[in-house]
Design goal:
The protein is mostly helical. It contains twelve helices and no strands.
Length: 214
């Protein structure tokens, strides 16, 4: 049986919230909202997600999408992504897609990879592709960098190529240089890669094991 988590009083028109200054009121509401979401999401992400979606445009719920996505991606990546697609397109959704895909791929790389490969290019997928590229670089850098082309946002696509190629160049300059010769990067971008130490890049926060790896 799923425990019922009470809604904090400041999410309703409580007097203490209404009388506070706007910035104080936002803090009073945001903190219990985040705590509520963190407490409820692991046990029932679908129900918590439905609640969060109802408040998605409210400033106090700015962290909710990411929190729910992280927990739901661990349990059911397909369902988490379907929920995120119904979410308003904003920076919170981007963070949610990133977190959901990262936790999904950590739990089941093959399933997450198959889902991504089955999808047509879409801006919604950009954060997930960044995570995928960041992880795949360790095993198949050429294939990983090829995925950058599927990113819809131009600046984001360029950043994916530059950061990924820089990481590869720092690890194996000879192989990376051969790729650079025919890469979509211009001369300026290639020079930037050659000067880089290979730090940073999408999806680098958490390394997962690929199926079959020891």
């Amino acid at each position: 049986m799923v425990a019922v988590v009470p809604v904090p009083s400041c999410l309703s028109p409580a007097l203490v919230c209404n009388e506070a200054a706007p910035e104080t009121r936002l803090t009073l509401i945001r903190r219990p909202s985040s705590r509520l979401t963190r407490a409820a999401a692991p046990a029932d992400p679908a129900r918590t997600g439905a609640w969060e979606l109802g408040y998605a445009q409210q400033a106090f719920a700015s962290e909710g999408c990411e929190i729910v996505a992280r927990q739901w991606g661990r349990i059911d990546g397909n369902a988490a992504m379907a929920w995120l697609e119904a979410h308003p397109a904003d920076s919170c959704r981007d963070a949610g897609v990133r977190e959901a895909y990262l936790t999904w791929a950590t739990e089941d790389w093959s399933d997450a990879e198959a889902w991504l490969e089955s999808r047509k290019p879409d801006a919604f997928l950009d954060p997930a592709i960044e995570v995928y590229v960041g992880q795949l670089l360790a095993w198949e850098p050429v294939k990983a960098l090829g995925w950058c082309d599927r990113i819809q946002a131009g600046e984001r696509r360029q950043r994916c190529l530059l950061s990924g190629a820089s990481r590869w160049y720092a690890k194996d300059a000879v192989a990376a240089e051969a790729w650079l010769q025919t890469s979509p990067l211009d001369d300026e971008g290639r020079s930037e890669v050659r000067k880089s130490t290979g730090t940073g890049g999408p999806g680098r926060a958490k390394r997962m094991r690929r199926p079959g790896a020891s």
